[in-house]
Design goal:
alpha/beta; 2-enoyl-CoA Hydratase, Chain A, domain 1; 6-stranded mixed sheet; 3-stranded mixed sheet; 10 helices; binds coenzyme A
Length: about 250
């Protein structure tokens, strides 16, 4: 349970809404745990067909909470729930949909590579400043990014840290539809209901055929995770987190 993740069910559609507006939906360990638990529960639940990730008007997710990164880098632990969440994404059998309005940073963007359908408003901006923060890509984005959009565009997104607009993300192949903000959630829910109405087992099998087995994705998550944990402790990363939290970012 987390006060910052609203879990609801509409018919056979589970919705997971990030709701931490004062911190732009930055994800804490508690939020990751709630998301991972909800994903696993809905994958196992006979009465749920699909899960939809939602944010708030004008903000999808500011990525991992940078205070938690700082604490983890100083030896405080706390990175485990994030790993449990991304593993749940890799192991997921039922479809995932996202509706993105506003910034989607870090895991807010790499989550899209695990979704089957992504709806974004023109206010959506996808960005992964991993390298700018002294870190490396995570959530198997180093594997799935090039697979989805080719090496060059994945490099711009994941290494250069370039912001991708909704249109650019659609061209790159990880956004399906660009929809006005006021129609965004209903578009995502309509797609979810259409998916939910299809033969459940056939959807699951077809999805697995398209995505392939989870083992290589999980292996890449482990590989990235080992480097990520090392990098969290680096001087480069510590300086970047502190600069952001003191509102004096030096690296853009
Ligand atoms: N971790 C912790 N706090 C965060 C945060 C994060 N990832 N992102 C935003 N916040 C906090 C800010 O510190 C600020 O807190 P305060 O009001 O107590 O000072 C509050 O959320 C609002 O953030 P602000 O930067 O003023 O909002 P904005 O609308 O100008 O910009 C973002 C929104 C998401 C573009 C910007 O906050 C941002 O770039 N966040 C960092 C993203 C990041 O690097 N994530 C890690 C990816 S690996």
């Amino acid at each position: 349970m987390s006060a910052h993740v609203e879990i609801a069910v509409q018919g056979t559609v589970q919705t997971l809404r990030l709701n931490r507006p004062d911190k732009k939906n930055a994800l804490t360990g508690e939020m990751y745990k709630a998301l991972a638990d909800a994903l696993k529960a809905s994958d196992a639940a006979a009465d749920i067909a699909v899960t939809v990730f939602l944010g708030l008007p004008g903000i999808f997710c500011a990525g991992n909470d940078l205070l938690d990164f700082l604490a983890a880098g100083q030896g405080g632990g706390g990175a485990m729930h994030g790993f449990t969440f991304i593993q749940a994404l890799a192991e997921r059998e039922k479809p995932l949909i996202a509706a993105v309005d506003g910034p989607a940073v870090g895991i807010g963007t790499t989550l899209m590579l695990h979704c089957d359908l992504v709806f974004a408003s023109p206010r959506a901006v996808f960005q992964t400043p991993f390298v700018n923060l002294g870190l490396v890509p995570e959530a198997a984005s180093s594997l799935l990014g090039p697979r989805v959009m080719g090496h060059s565009r994945a490099f711009e997104l994941l290494v250069m840290g370039e912001p991708f607009t909704a249109d650019r993300a659609r061209e790159a192949g990880f956004v399906n539809h660009v929809v006005p903000p006021e129609a965004l959630e209903s578009a995502a829910m309509t797609a979810a209901e259409a998916l939910a109405a299809k033969p459940r087992e056939a959807v699951k099998l077809a999805r697995r055929l398209l995505k392939g087995e989870p083992a290589p994705v999980k292996a890449r998550m482990e590989q990235e995770g080992a480097l990520f944990l090392e990098r969290l402790k680096s001087k480069e990363a510590m300086a970047a987190f502190e600069a952001f939290l003191q509102k004096t970012p030096k690296i853009q």
